[in-house]
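Dear colleague,

Thank you for sharing your sequence with our group. We've completed the structure prediction you requested, and as agreed, I am returning the results in plain text so they can be pasted directly into your records. Please verify that the sequence below matches your submission; if there's any discrepancy, let me know and we will rerun it promptly.
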Amino acid sequence: MRVPFLAILLASSLPVCAATRERPNILFILSDDQSYKTVSCYPEALPGAHTPSIDALARSGVRFTHSYMGAWCMPSRATLLTGRHPHGVESMRMEGKYPASTYDPEKSPFWPSVFRANGYHTAHIGKWHTGIDSGFGRDWDYQVVWNRPLHPENAGNYYSDQLLAFNGEERMTPGYSTDNYTAWACDYIQGKNRPADKPWYLWLCYGAIHGPTTPEKRHKGAHSSDAVRVPSDILPPRPGKPDYLNATQSWAKNNLGMLVTTKSGESFGDDSGKNQKTYADYIHQVLECVEALDEGVGKVLQALKASGQLENTLVVFTADQGFAMGEHGFRTKLAPYDANYRGPLIVSQPGTLPQDKVCRKPVNAADLVATFSAAAGVPIPWKTHGRDLGPLLRDPEKAPWPHPCFFEATGDHFGSDVNRVVSASPERAEHHNVPWYAALNAGRYKYIRYLKPGVPEELYDLQNDPEELKNLAADPTQQSHLESLRFATVGELKRTEAAYADNLPEAPRRLP
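Please find the predicted C-alpha cells below.
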C-alpha cells in the first residue's frame, strides 16, 4: 500500500471536493474494550446496564447488531486509520518496550491527512495506540493525545495522571481521563481550537472501559446491588471448542465455591487477576466505569445541539472491540467469538438518516472508513477494504447487502509480516495463546479459520446459537454451509490482497 505522501496532497484537487453542498462534520466516538452487552439498548445487555445517553443516540439513528472493529487495540485503530485490514497495513509493527510501536507514514498513510488536504479541520482527542508518531501537523490540525507507544512508562495510566501532548506540548495532567476528554471535545465542538468556516472531523478516543476499569468516584457502588448473569460456559468442559481455550481460561472457583478472576493475559490493567474479584464484583465494576463514558456521550451530543450543529454532524459511536466477561472462559478480547470481538455500533444524523432503526447486517472497521469518505465526498487515494454503509444507513431493514463481513486477528503482526509468519513459521501464529484467524459473518452463519496448524475450524448458527456454544463444523448436515463460508472467506482474502490466502493451513476436523 505504498502511496507517496504527495499523492495525498494531490487529492485536494479532486473535483468531488469542489461540490457546493454543505459537507457534514463527523464526530467519531470510540470507546475501549466495551462489550455491546454493557449498552442497555442492546437486547443482550447485562442486568443493570445503564446507558441513557447512548440509548438516546440509538433512538436518533441506526443501531447495528453485529459490529467487528478489531481483535485488540492496535489492529483496530490501524484499520480505522487506513481503511485496510491488518494484513494490508504495511510497515506497522511492535518495536521496543510494549506498547512501543512504529510505522512508515509513506507506506502506511492515515486518511485524516486526506480530509485535512481537502478542507476538513481534523482533530484527535484521547488514547493513541498506533506508533510513536501520532501524526500531529500531518494528520491532525488539533490534538490532545495520550501517546501510549511513545511513553510506555505512562501506558498503564488509563484513568489518572496521564502524560498528554497538547498540539505537541507535553505535560502531566491530573483528573479523571474520561471526564477530561469529554470537556476538551465539548470545547472543540463549540468552536474552541478550530476555525468556524471549515467542516470538521473529531476522533474522540476514550480509554474507558479498558482495565483497570476504574469508575469515577461518583459512580463507585452504583451497581453493587445489580443481579448478574453468569455465562453457561464460563468453566470447562466445552465440547467442540478448540483446545486453546484451556490456556486462556480466566475464571475459577475458590475454596468457597465462588467464581473468581484469575490471570487474563492482558498486558496492562489486569488488576482483577492480581487482586482476585468475584464474578459479581467484576461485572459491577465494569458497569460503574461505563457510567462516566455514557455521561460523556450525553455531554458531547448536547454540545452539538446547543451549537446548532446536530443535524449537520454524522455521529458514530463504537468500540475498538468487544470484551468477553466470562463467555467461553475469557476475560479479554482477542478471540474470534462475538463475546470477545463484537462491540456496539450506532450511527446518527437527524434529518438525514432514519431514526430508531436497527440494522442486522454485520459490518467491520474498514466499512466505517469507506462510509466517512463517501459522506464527506473525499475519496481516499489508495485501495481500502471497506464498503460504504450508506445504503444500510438510508434503509437499515430492507437495503440489499450481499456482502459478507470479514474480520481477522494476526496478533502484533501487520502487512507482509503476516504472510511471512503464516508461510514460513505458522506455529508462531498466535497472540496471548489465541491462534491467529480469518473469520466471516455471513448473516446467519459464522465461520472461523485458524492460521495456526492443528486448530480445527468452527461454524456457528448465530440465529439459533447466538452465544456460540455449539460448533457445527463437524456436523454432516452442515457441510454445505461450511464449504460455502470457507469459499467466501478465501474470496474476501483474495479481494483484499491477503498474501496468506495461498498459505492457509489445513484445518483438522473434530469428530462429531
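Summary note from our side: The chain has two domains: 5-215+280-394, 405-503.

Kind regards,
the structure core
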